[in-house]
Automatic annotation (TrEMBL):
One cellular component (GO) term of this entry: cytoplasm
PANTHER family: GLOMULIN
Name this protein carries in UniProt: Glomulin
GO molecular function: ubiquitin-protein transferase inhibitor activity
Taxonomic superkingdom: Eukaryota
Signal peptide, first to last residue: none
Length: 595
């Protein structure tokens, strides 16, 4: 058969595909006279067939099935290696989920038809699939503030596309997973497994983890009396597939540092004993999002619980997952923040109260999640996530003993600048202080008088002295005043003269600055209120239009006069509240000091 004739037949088939004349194209492909030609020229026909299939699926054409059959004929009749390379090369040009699924089915069929060099061919195909999955856009509507809204996630076209592609990739891998899945024999001796089997197992684990990590941006919920989400069903299948290749999912979920990676074998190609793990398995290099996602599914959703050995203590599991918790809480995607809070809460609930002492704080990984929880409590736009983060934060503090908690309070109060979170921390410190009776010996009390002085030295400060924006800083101010009042009523009598004098001195300076600030702020807002009342009364010309509200450096649009007046009155009421609490605190301090 001449080259000219071959080119003519290929050109005719391509033209028929372009004109959507699939019947004519199929007749040429299925003609026995052209079998050898199609076998050699399948590379040139696959891309036109994929493009035609993509165009038809986009338009919802009735000829889509004809085009699909034609594509399968080319895959069946082409040279396997040529078809394999062509599909891998053209995978990046596919935009339709439907066509991606079809292409993976063809790729899987070709790979299964090649009995040798399975691992080498997978090494060509899997990176192309991973690149395609990575290129998929994340869902835009992630601010689902309650379980009712999250149920609607499956109706999002972006979610449907991601789940469809990820499930297609999983289905592509499953036959190859079954080829090298663990058996009871494998668990007894690594010598009974060949290097190819070990290598393929590690290779498949890596790509299953890649798919699992891509699931991280989806709500994998399993709500009572509601159907499981499509993302949850997919995650469940992925975890089960990974369990086929590993007898210890807990170890795979542990967060791994860069130093750990240096000490791990990169591949399983060596027969050296140092590359043989104690379980006869190679540990794949798991991306952070994948190990975090696996930990969430194991300890929050309780998937594949039978693959988590009982030899690990709850403390060990918690410490090995600190990196996962930190990663999820630090991520800019709020869905991952939700999972980080849930994972942290699930693991903290299994820890003993006061199990960590101040000596354990040398491990900074223990305290980093506390900072990340604070950021979620303040910055996350999802109300239920913020509220849950507050509860988890309080539970987290309880795994430290009192001396460690005191150090943590000092550290956080120095690090955090937000008035709301500082007020929250001061209230927690006061609650801890209340638990210690005054009869305990001073040197045994982590919340003793000298430590109280250290805390007061940190909190009895106005950032800009009397010029501080008291309205924005009011939460912290009220917490400080309540702490001073509590100390005056309970602890001050037990203090030495030197310590009590220092406390009284700090309280006096703080009270004077606050009183000046309140006078200035009240005068300012009273003037604003008069201006607004003048507007409402139709006398705005008598007052300059200077009422401007803002957040930080950004100004908000002008409010209607009635709303402006409500804002001013609320501010003045807040100042009155602060002054009342200030007077109460000062009276208590004077009473105790004998003034």
């Amino acid at each position: 058969m001449t080259s000219q004739y071959s080119d003519s037949v290929v050109r005719s088939i391509t033209e028929h595909l372009a004109s959507r004349d699939f019947a004519s194209a199929r007749s040429l492909i299925c003609d026995d006279q052209h079998r050898a030609l199609i076998y050699e020229c399948a590379w040139d026909l696959l891309l036109p067939a994929l493009l035609a299939l993509e165009e038809d699926s986009k338009e919802g054409s009735v000829k889509t099935e004809d085009c699909l059959r034609l594509f399968k004929e080319i895959v069946d009749r082409g040279k396997p290696k040529e078809v394999l390379l062509s599909l891998i090369e053209h995978l990046s040009q596919i935009k339709s989920t439907t066509v991606f699924v079809v292409a993976l089915e063809g790729l899987q069929k070709v790979l299964l038809s090649i009995p040798t060099k399975r691992r080498a061919f997978l090494q060509w195909a899997l990176p192309a699939i991973e690149r395609y999955l990575t290129s998929l856009p994340d869902p835009q509507n992630q601010l689902l503030d309650d379980d009712t809204q999250r149920v609607l996630q499956d109706a999002d076209p972006a979610v449907q596309m991601i789940v469809g592609c990820l499930e297609a990739a999983l289905n592509f891998l499953l036959p190859f997973v079954q080829e090298v899945r663990l058996t009871s024999c494998d668990l007894l001796s690594v010598e009974k497994m060949g290097v190819e089997v070990l290598g393929q197992r590690q290779q498949l684990q890596h790509h299953l983890f890649s798919i699992l990590g891509r699931c991280g941006v989806l709500h994998t919920y399993n709500l009572p009396e509601k159907p499981k989400s499509s993302a949850y069903n997919l995650a469940e299948k992925l975890v089960n597939a990974i369990a086929y290749l590993s007898s210890d999912l807990a170890a795979l979920s542990f967060s791994v540092t860069h130093e750990d990676y240096k000490n791990m074998p990169a591949t399983c190609d060596s027969d050296n004993d140092e590359n043989d793990s104690s379980e006869g398995e190679c540990m794949p290099h798991v991306p952070e999002i994948s190990s975090a996602m696996l930990a969430y599914l194991l300890y929050v959703e309780f998937l594949a619980s039978g693959s988590v050995p009982c030899v690990y203590s709850q403390r060990y599991i918690f410490e090995k997952n600190l990196g996962n918790i930190t990663f999820l809480l630090s991520h800019p995607v709020y869905v991952l923040n939700y999972k980080g809070v849930a994972l942290c809460g699930a693991l903290i609930a299994k820890q003993s109260r006061g199990q960590y002492s101040s000596l354990d704080l040398d491990n900074s990984a223990l305290t980093v999640p506390l900072h990340r929880l604070v950021k979620v409590m303040v910055m996350c736009p999802l109300k239920d996530v913020r509220e849950r983060a507050v509860k988890v934060f309080c539970s987290y503090l309880k795994v430290f003993d009192s001396s460690a908690r005191y150090i943590i309070y000092c550290h956080l109060l120095r690090a955090e600048e937000g008035a709301g979170i500082r007020g929250f921390l001061i209230d927690l410190f006061r609650a801890d202080l209340h638990q210690w009776t005054p009869n305990i010996v001073e040197h045994e009390n982590p919340f003793g008088s000298r430590n109280i002085v250290n805390i007061l030295r940190i909190v009895c400060v106005l950032p800009q002295r009397e010029e501080t924006d008291l309205l924005n800083y009011s939460d912290c101010i009220l917490a400080v005043l309540n702490l001073l009042r509590y100390v005056a009523l309970t602890s001050l009598k037990q203090c030495s003269r030197d310590v009590s004098d220092r406390i009284l001195s700090m309280a006096e300076v703080y009270g004077e600055q606050l009183k000046k600030g309140l006078d200035l702020s009240r005068a300012h807002y009273t003037l604003k209120l008069k201006q607004v009342e003048g507007k409402i009364a139709g006398k705005a010309k008598d007052y300059p239009d200077s009422t401007l509200l803002g957040i930080g450096d950004g100004a908000l649009p002008n409010l209607p006069p009635e709303q402006e007046m409500d804002v001013m009155k609320a501010a003045l009421a807040r100042f009155d509240l602060m002054e009342c609490v200030l007077v109460l605190a000062q009276d208590c301090l004077k009473l105790v000091s004998g003034c």
